[in-house]
From TrEMBL:
InterPro entries, sorted: DUF2891 (IPR021365)
Annotated protein name in UniProt: DUF2891 domain-containing protein
Source organism of this protein record: Koribacter versatilis (strain Ellin345)
Pfam family, one: DUF2891
């Protein structure tokens, strides 16, 4: 059983997002310059998602606030969160975000990680029945449509999966985007995503889990793939596929088969990734467990490893260093609120 979100932790995670979504600097922009006119500060280039060090972290910082407002109404941070969201998610700001995405040389901008989180934000707004959410959803719609179009055009051309442990990984992004398509009941888009997942991953076997983690991973290539495939296959098919893909999963409740990572320096932005790896591993293991039957002998080992990684990951979400504080709260909220796992 994962830790629950009590009022203190809800407020703590919300405050991590509130501390950064309107904090412009330091900032790392992935920006193609076509002329001197493109040399502008982040708040002018992407006026909705300019904070939190980088675009994708800003996007999932907004997602964090929307999710907590939806799940925990009347919390202590509600007024501050609504004020920040209203200031950033204006029609004008989001129109400029859409214009930016269509700019020359930006075909691969934030693809696929940031785009996946943008669609998660849209799904969260759709599921939150609130006057603010209806307004924000209307404002973000042109950007949302542009992202869906971009993913739809890109996936059929992608010849191989990207198996990195960082932002370029395709399995993680496809999982988030597939959840979006199902929430929004976009059946055509869902069919494309599922077909792409099967094309890219169905024949995989004997994942080299012993190669993980790489030194700067915040996503597990192997577990993210399994977490995607439990969404793309029915339960019986997934159980068979998983046996072939991760034959090293023990048939007993021994947690030592997969150990949490340890960050040697949380003030180093890249090494702080390892704290995020523990959080994402935990939710991916929870996702895998949710697709296995209660009688599956692998289930205790999967659940035990999930608990172990959740404890290690959540203990690191302190906000002491901005290098982790600007994004780890989103990963913690995704984990503890069981986003992506069907009831």
């Amino acid at each position: 059983m994962l830790p629950s979100l009590d009022a203190r932790n809800v407020e703590r995670f919300a405050n991590l997002a509130l501390a950064c979504i309107q904090r412009e600097y330091p900032n790392k922009i992935a920006h193609v310059l076509n002329s001197d006119a493109d040399a502008r500060p982040p708040r002018e280039l992407t006026p909705a998602f300019y904070g939190c060090f980088d675009w994708h972290s800003s996007v999932h910082g907004h997602w964090l606030l929307v999710r907590l407002l939806r799940l925990f109404p009347n919390s202590s941070f509600e007024s501050a969160a609504r004020e920040a969201l209203r200031a950033n998610l204006t029609a004008e700001n989001l129109a400029k975000e859409s214009d930016y995405l269509h700019g020359e040389g930006r075909a691969s901008f934030e693809r696929p990680y940031g785009l996946a989180w943008l669609l998660q934000l849209c799904a969260e707004l759709y599921e939150w029945d609130d006057p603010d959410s209806h307004t924000f959803a209307q404002h973000i719609r042109p950007l949302e449509e542009a992202v869906v179009h971009r993913i739809s055009a890109w996936l059929p051309k992608l010849p191989y999966p990207v198996r990195s442990g960082e932002h370029s990984q395709t399995a993680f992004a496809l999982g988030l985007i597939l959840d979006y398509a199902r929430v929004m009941m976009e059946t055509g888009f869902e069919q494309l995503l599922r077909a792409s997942a099967l094309r890219l991953y169905l024949v995989d076997h004997h994942a080299p889990l012993h190669f993980e983690p790489s030194g700067e991973d915040f996503l597990s290539p192997s577990l993210a793939e399994a977490d995607l495939m439990r969404r793309a296959l029915d339960a019986e098919e997934f159980a068979i596929w998983l046996r072939r893909f991760l034959p090293q999963l023990p048939d007993h409740g021994h947690a030592q088969w997969l150990q949490p990572a340890v960050s040697p320096d949380r003030a180093d932005g890249k090494l702080a990734h390892l704290d995020g790896l523990n959080l994402s591993r935990a939710w991916m293991l929870e996702g895998i467990a949710s697709a296995l039957s209660q009688s599956d002998p692998r289930l205790p080992a999967v659940e035990s490893a999930a608990r172990q990684h959740a404890e290690a990951g959540l203990a690191a979400v302190t906000g002491e260093h901005y290098e982790g504080g600007h994004w780890l709260g989103s990963f913690a909220v995704y984990l503890v609120t069981r986003r992506g796992i069907r009831a």
